[in-house]
Amino acid sequence: MGRTLCTGNYAAGHTLAVAGEANRAARGCCGGAYPITPQTEIIEYLRGFNFRKGRIVPVESEHSAMGVCIGASLSGARAFTASSSNGLAYMTENVFAAGYYRLPIVMIAVNRTLGPPWNIWVDQGDSLALRDAAWLQFYCHSHQDLVDTIAIAFRVAEDARVMLPVMVAMDGFVTSHTEMVVELLDQERVDRYLPPCEVPHRVQHSRPATIGNLTWPRETERHRRDIQEAMERVPAVLDEAIGEFESMFGRRADGAIVAEQTEDAETILIASSTMAATLRGVVRARRLRGERIGMIRIKQFRPFPRSELLRAIGGARRVGVLDRNHSPGSGGIFWNEVAATLHSSDILLQDYIAGIGGGDVTPEILDSIIDDLASRTAAVDPLWQEVAV
Amino acid sequence: MTSALLDEPLLRPGNTNCAGCGMSIGLQWLDEVFADQRPCLVIPAACAIVTAGAFPTTSYGVPTLAATFASAPAFATGVSVVTELNGETNPTICWAGDGGTYDIGMASLSAAAERNEDILYICYDNEIYGNTGGQRSSATPEGAMTSTTPRGKTEWKKDMVAIMAAHRIPYAATLSVAHREDFLRKLRVARQTRGFRFLVMLSPCPIGWKSSSDESIELVDLAVRSGLFPLYEVFDGERYTINVRPDGTDLREYLSRQRRYAGSALDVDAAAGRIARQWRILETMAKQFPA
Ligand SMILES: Cc1ncc(C[n+]2csc(CCOP(=O)(O)OP(=O)(O)O)c2C)c(N)n1
Ligand code: SF4
Ligand SMILES: [Mg+2]
Fold first, then answer.
1. What's the domain count of chain A?
2. Which residues pair with A57 in a beta bridge?
3. Backbone angles phi, psi at A70, to 5 degrees
4. Helix axes B106-114, B72-85, angle to 10 degrees
5. In chain A, helix, strand, coil percent, each to 5?
6. Least distant ligand from the CA of B105
7. Over the stretch A251-271, which tens digit does the pLDDT of each residue have?
């Protein structure tokens, strides 16, 4: 395919399309398409793609976009869609249904502030509100990360040991609408990378079953525990999928977390998506000045990579979490998870809520946050970091 | 009444339908016409999914998907698309209540009809939210008492066939469990038609109608004979056929046998007048635009 200059949305649309097309040797592909800024370019790309065995249905709502994916996946097709913000909120009921039905659907979530008031800029609150829906969640920091993660997402979702849907998130506008040089995936290698999609519980006329009728508490609890156990198998399956991806495409994709200079770090900053990319430059500069500082980018939010995180945090004394999201009455959502992970340690853990509503989190702002963290003797309630725009 | 291929009825005995439930008849007749094609049923939240019973058993002898309340047409679209992509011929059939059709599912239903998906959509209209214990829907007729219209509903029933016909779908028709041959014939027409087909069946519900379970079929017969529930077909949204005309039966005959109307403030003469006007429209359409 070669290197291409394109937007994050284009890269995502293209990767979904070649993944769908790759299933033409099996039961084909299908998805629902519904526009919302900033993801619209993705569904436009899908509608324009000439699938040999696939159809993208132009539905009347996000609720139905996921409904079509569910019906298609239960019929054994590879299914995918994309949405943002209020679209994800509107889709919610069927997002949960897809998770509970154990369907290997892949959805691109282009993070955007939930309204009202209306704001089209990045904020992770939309996809994080769906964290309990039995979906895996990956937050990407670059166009290449996005492309590679989408391909890997299908592998992991469709693996019999997992059999769960995957949401791949990117930052609205910052990633979706900016152009970067990216290595797009070629059909021929995607055909080989993705095995035919097999949904073991799909509709089969030789085995007439009712999918989703009533269950008693005991079966329901078993079902939920099965999902938890499938989540626990993700690290091993993801590892394999990344390994296979590397041997096919010659590139190593990032795993659940990316730790940098954490080995001897006293202070560690945790961030996700593009904020982590900005943070990287700041942390490197401070390292050069002799500070014992490191950072962790959390890419995989579900399942939450607790053991990887504990290992990477190691003996650090101060940890700051950057959250471009907020749970009213609580705090940053990543911070909540990190706090649960560190519950038995005496690390100073401080939450910084920054870039809400798409505010630009500059290196200067990150520097001031790190200065604040260095000066603290004890953690306080989540701190709101005002940004200029 | 058994599936040719599986020797298995579409609706198995021992299901949880109440005695006198219209669904029990409708599903058996559906079996008669469609069993050999082995359909896939898509059923939204409603009494009809409770009919299946509790996992791991099921009362449905064909593959059945439980859809979220508003989503039967969207789920069915996915099923139907993939069925077609794979060159399979199994029909995709939505079996939905009036709540899932007239109310919460309206948008996804309208959209699937507008796209003319290859789906047979059958609404069993018991004129109430049965599964949640009997609340009003927009299919509940004027005057009927439900748990959320304790003094009787004040609004008239939504005209769903007119709405669906306005989508210019290939086939829309009404079904009566008191008119077996007409019912089966319409299912056969639906079977031979491609694209979106919409059928609505007046589905007696002794619980919601507060009627006697042994009078279910008779009640539907009275609804047809009094003109309240016209039996007709609309082809491509523009050609009309009337199947059964009212025979002068007094509407009171129908109303008086259901306690949901007992003590309601319904003005029966006004209702009869509205029915007569509906019929004038229908007769005009059938005359001007015959099938
Ligand atoms: C989104 C959502 N809202 C509400 C419900 C609760 N609910 C389940 S079935 C039902 C009523 C169904 O009525 P209808 O479609 O007429 O079918 P019936 O039960 O009468 O057969 C309701 C309100 C639900 N399952 N999902
Ligand atoms: S409540 Fe009414 S619709 Fe539901 S099963 Fe009983 S008779 Fe049928
Ligand atoms: Mg009903």
1. 2
2. A32
3. -65, -50
4. 30
5. 40, 20, 35
6. 1
7. 999 999 999 999 999 999 999
Nearest CA-CA partner of B246 in B228, B226, B231: B226
Secondary structure letter of residue B18 according to DSSP: P
Query: Does the pLDDT at position B4 exceed 90?
Result: no
Nearest neighbour of A211 by CB, restricted to B66, B90, B108: B66
Q: Work out the pLDDT band at A389, boundaries 50, 70, 90.
A: low
A221 and A187 both lie in a single domain: yes
CB-count exposure of residue A240 (10 Å: 0-12, 13-18, 19+) = middle
Tell which CATH architecture fits domain B3-288: 3-Layer(aba) Sandwich (3.40)
Q: Rounded to two decimals, what is the model's pTM?
A: 0.98
Amino acid at A164: L
Q: Dump pLDDT digits (tens) for A29-88.
A: 999 999 999 999 999 999 999 999 999 999 999 999 999 999 999 999 999 999 999 999
**A262 and A227 share one domain:** no
Query: Are A341 and A273 within one domain?
Result: yes
Query: Distance between CA atoms of B275 and B207, rounded to whole angstroms?
Result: 25
Q: What is the pLDDT of residue B7?
A: 72
CATH number, domain with residue A98? 3.40.50.970
Q: What tokens does B211 get?
A: 């009627």
pLDDT score at B64: 98
The whole-number pLDDT of residue A386 equals 84
- List all residues 6 or more positions away from A243 whose beta carbon is below 8 Å from its beta carbon: none
**CA dihedral of A165, A166, A172, A173, whole degrees rounded to 10:** -120
Domain end (from A195, A215, A249): A249
Measured in angstroms, the CA of B90 and the nearest CA of chain A are apart by: 9
Q: B243-275 burial by CB neighbour count: b if 16+ within 10 A, else e?
A: bbebeebebeebbebbebbeebebeeeebeeeb
Domain hosting residue A313, numbered range? 257-385
- The shortest CB-CB distance from B38 to any of A58, A59, A205 is to A205
* C-beta atoms of A205 and B62 within 8 A: yes
CATH code of the domain in which A283 resides: 3.40.50.920
Q: Which of A249, A265, A284 is the last residue of a domain?
A: A249
Co-location of A166 and A31 in the same domain: yes
Residue owning the nearest CA to atom 23 of ligand 1: B132
Same domain, A98 and A156: yes
Asked if A81 and A190 sit in the same domain, the reply is yes
Question: Given this model, what pLDDT does residue B1 score?
Answer: 36
- Chain A positions contacting chain B at CB under 8 Å are 27-28, 30, 32, 53-55, 57-61, 63-77, 79, 93-94, 97, 203-205, 207-216, 219
Coil/strand/helix, residue A223: helix
Q: Do B40 and A63 touch (CB under 8 A)?
A: no
Same domain (yes/no): A166, A272: no
Q: Do A205 and B64 touch (CB under 8 A)?
A: no
Inter-chain CB proximity B54 and A215 less than 8 Å: yes
Q: For B42-74, how does the pLDDT look when each residue is reduced to its tens digit (9 = 90+)?
A: 999 999 999 999 999 999 999 999 999 999 999
Q: At what angle do helices A217-232 and A85-100 cross, to 10 degrees?
A: 110
Give the HSE-up count for residue A62: Cα atoms under 13 Å, Cβ half-sphere: 21
Residues A378 and A358 in one domain: yes
- Closest Cα to atom 1, ligand 2: which residue? B130
- What pLDDT does residue B6 have? 56
* Segment A133-170, tens digit of pLDDT: 999 999 999 999 999 999 999 999 999 999 999 999 99
Residue ranges lining ligand 1, Cβ < 6 Å: B 45-48, 69, 97-100, 126, 128-132, 137
Query: Are the beta carbons of A77 and B78 separated by less than 8 Å?
Result: yes
